[in-house]
Every structure is written in C-alpha cells, then in structure tokens.
C-alpha cells in the first residue's frame, strides 16, 4: 500500500447538473483531475463497490477516501487546496447557509420544472428512476402534478433569479465580487440545468441580462484539467491506497456517536436508495466518515455530509 498523494477522481456523467457544480469547483481552483464516467441509471456496480451502496452523482475519490455529495466534495477541496479559496470574502458561513437553499429548495424546484416539462417524452426507465429518487414513492403522480403546475413552478423560480440578477446589476463579475466563490458554482448548476434541459429554459432565462453575463463568466472558468479514467483503474487506485482520514468524533454529538459504532447513513428522504453501513470513524457538525471494508478493494473511508443525511445507529 502507498500513502503518496493520490489523484482526484470524479465519478460522474456529462449531463449531471450536480456534477457540473463539482466540475466548476475544480475550475475555480484550477485543479487537474481524473474523469470516470458512470451510468446515468442504477445499477452502478463499480461506483457502489467504492461507496457501499450510495448511487448519487457525483462522487469524488482521493485514494481510498470516498466523498459523497458536493457538500463533502467542496469542504474537502477547500481543506486540501486552500488557494485559490472558495471563500474570497469573509462570508463563508453565509455561503454555506445559502447552499442549503440552492442545493435544497431551488434544486428540487429545477428538477420538477425539467422533469415536468418533459412529460411523456421522458424515457420510462429514466422517469421511474429520477421520479422515485426526487419525488418519492408516488413519483408518477408527482410527475403529472409537476407537468400541470409548470406556470406556478416557473413563477417560483423567477423571483429568486430576479434577486440574483439584482445582486449582479452593479457589473460585478461574480456573485460576491471580482473573484469566483463556492456560491457561484452552487448557483451556476441550477442555471446550467434549466438552460440545457428545459425546452423553455433559454427563453425564460433571457429576462435576466446580468445573470446571463455572469453565467458566461462562470462558464469561462472551465473545469480545470480533466483526463479520462476507467472505473477499473479507479478501483485499482483505491486498492493501492489506505484512507488518510483523521479519526475524530465530536464529544457533543447530539446522537451520541462514538468511534467504532455501527451505523447506516442515507439521504434524509425516501428516495428508495440503499443505505451505507460501516463503523463510525469521524463525525462532527459538518460530516460523518464511516470505515468499511470491501473484499476486493480493502479499507475505505466513506464521507457524507451531516446536513441532509440521516445517521442511524445499528448496534
């Protein structure tokens, strides 16, 4: 096994809006990374061998450390590569607070607009997969409701985009000023998704001249330097590494988590997904890291956000 600095690997696919957020984040930091393309639909056996069951996109891998959800990805990128920073002003706390809006309510709204506008044109398998993931067990009714409710959904999106457009109306290049920040990636993936996947997206967005100028500025950042990598090589990279996560469990943890405790972790909603089981390795208010072993890969540390994820103690 080696403990040399391993490469950044992003398990993603080109059409994923959340992966686009991570790719822009790589661009902001000017990073080189390896691009592993994963299937758009489950099953994703090469990915879940690393994660223990988590199948959402994207997942970042650095050696035998596996980072699920862009919350964890951005936190870890800032820790490992502090310059240029995702927080060029003194507003880091505000940016993380705003990210719960962009990644929560606003993303859910964008998904309903995109899926609802597609209607019967959605491939059946894709409709069932994404509908179940984002709209719950009664996803078919949810898709019909989103289609019927498109004018209302567009109205709900229009107001916040006016707010952002106003923020940019003084000519600033990015949301906080001259330098790009995490919030630019967090907002950009919503606009990118609406423009590219909603048939009325370009017309809808044309109302926001300052937003469109900003959108081009963010797109011009690029994605850093990506080189393709096979899923097999990504697994080999994990096999040849050991996790470098640092063990630490917050003594004030509200759930009373302790090192070595067996837990399962899953998104805090009913998306029909497989939870991930392992032993608590580290936990604080931002994240939980669980240790798991795969017979083919070896030791892995899988990192999840604490916010938006449910941790259930199993023993």
TrEMBL record:
Keywords carried by this UniProt record: Transferase
Residues of the GST N-terminal domain: 6-85
Alphabetical list of InterPro entries matching this protein: Glutathione-S-Trfase_C_sf, Glutathione_S-Trfase_N, Thioredoxin-like_sf
Pfam families cross-referenced by the UniProt entry: GST_N_3
An annotated Gene Ontology molecular function: transferase activity
Domain of life: Bacteria
Official protein name in the record: Glutathione S-transferase family protein
Native source organism of the sequence: Meridianimarinicoccus aquatilis
Lineage: Bacteria, Pseudomonadati, Pseudomonadota, Alphaproteobacteria, Rhodobacterales
């Amino acid at each position: 096994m080696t403990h040399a600095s391993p490469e950044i690997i992003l398990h993603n696919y080109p059409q994923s809006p959340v992966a686009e957020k991570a790719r822009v984040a790589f661009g902001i930091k000017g990073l080189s990374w390896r691009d592993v393309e994963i299937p758009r639909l489950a099953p994703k056996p090469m990915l879940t061998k690393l994660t223990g069951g988590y199948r959402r996109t994207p997942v970042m891998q650095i050696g035998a450390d596996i980072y699920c959800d862009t919350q964890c990805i951005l936190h870890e990128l800032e820790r490992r590569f502090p310059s240029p920073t995702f927080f060029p002003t003194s507003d880091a706390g505000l940016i993380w607070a705003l990210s719960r809006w962009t990644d929560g309510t606003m993303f859910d709204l964008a998904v309903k607009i995109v899926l609802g506008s597609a209607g019967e044109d959605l491939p059946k398998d894709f409709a069932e997969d994404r509908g179940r993931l984002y709209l719950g067990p009664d996803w078919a009714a949810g898709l019909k409701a989103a289609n019927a409710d498109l004018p209302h959904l567009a109205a709900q999106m229009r107001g916040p985009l006016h707010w952002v457009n106003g923020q940019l109306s003084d000519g600033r290049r990015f949301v906080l000023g001259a330098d790009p920040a995490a919030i630019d990636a967090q907002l950009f993936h919503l606009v990118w998704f609406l423009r590219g996947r909603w048939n009325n997206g370009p017309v809808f967005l044309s109302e926001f001249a300052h937003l469109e100028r900003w959108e081009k500025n963010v797109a011009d950042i690029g994605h850093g330097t990506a080189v393709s990598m096979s899923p097999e090589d990504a697994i080999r990279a994990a096999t040849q590494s050991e996790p470098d996560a640092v063990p630490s469990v917050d003594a004030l943890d509200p759930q009373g988590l302790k090192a070595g405790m067996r837990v399962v972790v899953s998104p805090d909603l009913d998306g029909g997904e497989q939870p991930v089981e392992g032993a608590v390795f580290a936990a604080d208010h931002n994240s939980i890291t669980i240790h798991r072993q795969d017979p083919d890969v070896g030791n892995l540390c899988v990192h999840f956000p604490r916010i938006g994820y449910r941790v259930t103690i199993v023993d």
